[in-house]
Design goal:
Number of domains: 2
Structural class: mainly alpha
Shape: elongated
Number of strands: 0
Largest sheet: none
Length: 183
Amino acid sequence: MATHTEQLKTEISVIERKVREGGMCFEERSAEIDRVSKEYVLRLSSFNDAQKAAEELSAESSGRKPRELPINPPDTALLDRLSDLLLHEDLTDKTPWKIRNTEYPFMNARMTEDRKAKDVKVSAIEREQERKLGGTRRMRAPQEHAFMDRAARNKNAERRRKYNAFVKGKTEGVLRVVIKKAE
């Protein structure tokens, strides 16, 4: 009699053969994988229950406490094969545009590496934005500083001359003061 793991292997092989031949659409495949996985879990739990019952019977006949038996976990490699069968179309799609054409694409290791190589580093983008938004100015040359100083002195002298003429009353100007009464 085949064990629960061997039965699952044979059922997975049958499904794989049908999928490769193109004889199973997604709905059929999904229903079959659901059925196979449920049967596997039931067989595994009955196997664990049978082991526990045998240990309890053995302990009772020898007059000792039953040992705590480790639970046999499901075979994850076989369950991974089942999940790969469910996603067969997505995993075997070799078109270079699947990232663009599929809403939630699956990428293998090579595709992930290629995508990371094409991506722009976040630090480079941040440096570029900082340069643009921060307004990094160039340093002025000493000649430019001297020119700006001369221009500022000339403008200040003109302002001082106009102000002094106004204060001495030589030019006409209007000084308007508005005083509001507090109510």
